[in-house]
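WARN retry 2 of 3 for item q-0093 after timeout on previous attempt; input resubmitted unchanged.
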Amino acid sequence: MTDNANIALKAGTSKLPAYTENARLRFATGTLLYLAQGLAQGLFFVAIPSWLAVNGQPVGAIGSFIAAISLPWSLKFFIGAVVDRYAFLPMGRRRAWLVGAQACLIISLIAFAIRSPLPSELATIIIFGAVLSAMTAVQDVALDAMIIDLTPKNELGKINAFMLGGKSVGMAGGAALVGYFLEYQSFPIAMIATACLFSIPAFAAILIRERPGEKLFPWNEGQTSVQSRDAKPDAWWPVLRETFRVLLRRDPLLIIGLCVFYGMHQGIIEATLPAFAAQEIQWGETRYSSLAGIGYLISSAGLLLVGGWVTDTIGPATLGYWTSGIVAGVIAIFIFVALASTTDLFFSSWYLFYTLIVSGFYLCMVTLGMRVCEEHVAATSYALMMGSMALGMMLGAGSAGLLDQIGGYAALLTAAIVTILSSAAMGLGLSPATGGPVRAPGLVSEPPPR
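OK item q-0093 returned
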């Protein structure tokens, strides 16, 4: 019997299996932890922007908030470098970071509740939002790195579909429930409710080891796995050298461009739609947040039922071409119909369909990013790619005020069309190994994509 097995027996035979031991456990863990992340993002990107819009804040102010909370995500490269460089290896390479980030996020939400700023206190709201977003970004970096480290390549499409499905459910809860509490209860209750909701799926990181024989907590019995010890860099230079070796190839550079343009698209949309709903059709924050929640649930169902299968079958690049074209057409319809005269039914139907299709494009993007990463610098390289999306979101949201002055909603939505099509165009140069259908299990042993 191996030393790791002896340690596991001493720790107790009733423990759940480790992440590496069970595919269903991998899917469940990824789904639950992305559910927690979605709760926080539903608060940031839907509930609070809608609350600001209903309370009279203009598109430019909402855009400034979204740009500020996107800032930590644009710095994910630096977060990833720290996560790759430092680790409490007896608990695995990534899990200590997950647990720590979740604890800090819950504490920050409680502090936000105690301070309870008014909608007009935009600077205070931005500061708290940026802190909360930073904690969520740390969790996201550590989780994505753990997924890349420990998940077989031929499972990436499916596990991304499950994770994004969980995230959509979380965003639905965060958007709808927090929106309800903001309108009908109070700001402190809304933040406390978010902290309570977040703590439930966060237990997945507490209860599941990365590999057999590792410590569940620092005070438990266990030891560092050979794989974690061998994979961890011992200095900064190897982290940076290997990261840039991975990224300075054609496929990763194209995916970075894809992420930037998609982020610009999302930044514009997240600043535009809450303002349109509040100011043009006179919706309160609960109504828009509830619609967003329904949209996330529908997209979650689509991702869980067919998203992973479609991605692996036709390839993420092809999925991106189709979904971006449909999104551009749907936004064009909105420009010519809703801006002239709209109804609640048309806006709701349009929003739900848009949310479903754009979630397919996002699934394409994250799957492409994971395919080109290498395990030993997974946090840094993948964080830089996804951080470039946040940079794009900052640019898009930051430009919302100027676009609004130039041409109102028509200019904002036209820019959203241009950016989503530009994002899809980045996929035209991808190699078949990166953008094509999955070839399990052969994809694991293929040479790295260009």
